[in-house]
Design goal:
The chain is of the alpha+beta class and 251 residues long. It contains 9 helices and 12 strands. Keywords: Signal.
Length: 251
Amino acid sequence: MKLYKLLSFSFLLATLTSCTFTENIYVSDNGTGKFALDMDGSALMEMAGDQLGSQMGADAKKNIDSTFTFKQLLADKKDSIAKLSPEVQNEIKKLEDLTVNLKMNGEKKEFLMAFSKDFKNVNELQDVLQAMSTLQKLEGGSNASNPFAGGLGKNNSTLSYTYDGNKFTRKAIIDKQKSAEKAKDSAADMSNMIFASSNYILKYHFPKRIKKVSNPSALFSDDRKSITLQYSFTDYMENPDKLNFDVEFEK
């Protein structure tokens, strides 16, 4: 199965049932680190794994364990990408160094997809799910047959991360105009129903002990160097600023 088809179908699965998204960030002393976003859609495999084969074709009869980079995937779409605006091309180019690992096992009722990348500074990071939604432009915009058109990750915000050794910040700024337009879209109500039972979990790991976190719901690891926060995926989609927080470290 071609890489793009494989990834597209995987995102289609994610829009059909409850999933757990886990965003991990590992920060080292010098500010470098690793980002990972894991998506667990095994609930769909549990409910409808036997029916997926007919949708995916002969490839679905085999268990899938595939690892590839977005650079490989986008190489197949270079002609289509060249026709897009410079702004959109830049958004898509940021995905090139993402590594994707996809595991699908019908017998074990397993469906896991993981995106990861190393970074030199947290301010390099972007909202991977939202950036992924730009790929719909490669398949004719919001065509109903396009799995990216469902809006997975399109929460109309700009996400940024900062870290200076003393403080870490995760901040999403909402585009109020786009959010107002989305509120009028009947498709948004359908998205809310689909994602109502999905979760978005943040797990951040730091080289220093944490003094305090602005969000009182944060759970600390035993060594106080990691925190975990859990939200509904509806919060991520409709109120992304609810996922904002600051972390201050002990000196």
